[in-house]
Amino acid sequence: MQSIPLRKSFGNRVRELRLATGQTQEAFADTCGFARTYMSRIETGGANPSLDAIKVLADALGISLAKLLDGL
Question: What is the annotated signal peptide range for this record (predicted)?
Answer without folding.
Answer: none
